[in-house]
Fold:
Amino acid sequence: MNKTIVPNNDLRSLVAPAQIRDRSTSCAYGILDAFRDNPRTRHPALLVRDDGSEDVVTITEFTQGGFRLDVSLRPNLGEKVLIRATGLDDLPARIRWAHGAEAGGSY
Structure:
């Protein structure tokens, strides 16, 4: 699997532009593999809200059915969002729970 290495100087450049995505996968398998190989993986991402605003988040758990995020701005329960991260096509999801600086959802 060929992956593009991007300098860690701009988080948005790591998670947003399509040209830096891992083109060998069209879904979440790259990230799922990373979490399966190392459950303590923390993956930077953007949470794109319905209104188009973007929040920088960290994916702390990622499974075939759902996810857990560290967030700075708590999303609303039931909110439709997109998760945007390197190696992952924009993934539509819905926020199912939020508590403190964490939130989670399902696809």
User: Anything to note?
Assistant: The domain at 11-106 is CATH 2.40.10.220 (Thrombin, subunit H).
